[in-house]
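Fill-in record for Magnesium dependent.
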Amino acid sequence: MVRKLSKAGPGSLPPSSSTASAATDSTTLSASSASSLLPRILTDELPLPKLIVFDLDYTLWPFWVDTHVTPPIKPVSRDNTAAIDRTGETFAFYTDVPHILHTLPLAGVRLAVASRTHAPDLARDMLKLLHVAPPDPSDLPPPITTSSSSSAPDKKAKKGKDSSAGGKPRRALDFFDAGAEMYPSSKLRHMEALRRRTGVPHEEVLFFDDEARNREVEQLGVTMCLVRDGVSWAEVERGVREWRRRRGVGEGTWRAHPHAQDPAAWQE
C-alpha cells in the first residue's frame, strides 16, 4: 500500500488536513482515481506556458527520494505504476500526476524537471521505473495546433510513438522532453540550464515546487506556483491563472483564436 511519507523540511508548506487524514488511512496514488474532468484552463483558448517545470519531492511524488527510498528499487505492480524499495516501502506519484503528464503535452506544453535532490541517479531510476498509463481518450482534449514557429518542437513531440491516448504505459521520464535538471544546486541554475537547452524564455515558464525558498526563480521571470501537498489539476489551474495574471492576460486581452498559442492572437 502506498502511503505519504512525512516531511518537515524548511520552507515547505504543511499538508492540508484533508490530505493528511487521507494519507493516514490508506492513501492510494494510482492514476485510476484521477479526475475525469479536465480543467477549463486547457480548453478556454487563452495562452498557456510554453514550458511547465516540476520539482520532484512532495510535488510529483509524496516522499524525498534521497531520504525515504532505499535502493535497489523494482516495480511492484504489473503496469509499473508503483515501485518498492529494499525495505518493502512502496512509492508512486500523487493521484493526478499521471493524467497531468499525459495531458499537458497534448495542449502544446513542454515538460521538464528541476530538483535539488542529493540522489539524482536514484531519482532518474524512479522516473524510469514508474510508468504512466494512458488515460481514457474521453478525458483528453483534442491536440492544439499552432502556426507559431516557436512551438514546432511541441508538434513534433505530439506525433511521437504513444504520445496520445491509447497505447502502452510509458516511462515517466519520457514525458519530460525539455529535460531533467536533477542535482544539488540553486533552482536558478536549473532554470538557466533549461533555458539554454530549450530556448524557451523564462517568462514562458511555469514552475511547481513545494518550497517557498525556490521563489528565487521569479527574479528570472519564471512564474512559480507553491504547492501545499503535491500537484493536482486544481494546482495546475491555479498555476496557469497566476502565470496569465503576471503577463496581464485575461479574457479581455485575448480574443478567441483557433491557434491559442500563436503570439499573433495578442489583442493590442
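KEY FINDING: The first helix runs from residue 17 to 26.
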